User: What shape does this take?
Amino acid sequence: MTGVRPFGDRGSTLPLYMWLTTILLFTALAFFAFAQAASARNGAQSAADAAALAAAQQAREDLLLDLGGAIKADDDWLDWLDLPDGELPGEGATAAAQELAAANESTVLGGAQATEVNGFPGFLVEVQTAYTVGESIIPGTESMTATARATAVIQPRCAFDVDADPTKPVMLDCDGQSVGIDPGEFDPDDLPDASVMFSVRLAE
Assistant: This one.
């Protein structure tokens, strides 16, 4: 004789199924919220990196102009190749950083700050995204922005004879590229691109 399956067995699994489904859905939504936050942080970091590099690159261009002036007027112009006292022209650094940050939907907080890393001068830039993390199951994310920091430094690329006379023609070795400078017949237009004489990189 075949027995009749109690209806209670089937009914008891339904609440368990609904509970597990709810847990899985909540977990998926939580992971999605964390992914949204990670995406915002990554965007902020990319904007900070770009802004810091822009600040340092602008300073490098200004540095080359100052070097040109020093060659014409200063017997110690060779010191400029080693970035004397770690100083950098920073007049246009903040504007350059702001422009790149805006291109990445972010704003610069506090301007490009002069800094030094391992003896190399550079700029520290902090940015805040103009966009938010977005709505999620975590309260407040719809108004939460992301911030990030980055530092870019300038490094000399040119070597020269330590006994070189700065009042006479000098040959520079800029990472394998030869650059000749004759202070007596110097024309600023003779200088190579700033990237030949100074490198810019993100500090780790």
The radius of gyration is 29 Å. The beta strands are 106-117, 120-129, 147-156, 158-159, 170-174, 177-181, 198-202. The helical segments are 7-73, 93-103, 194-197.
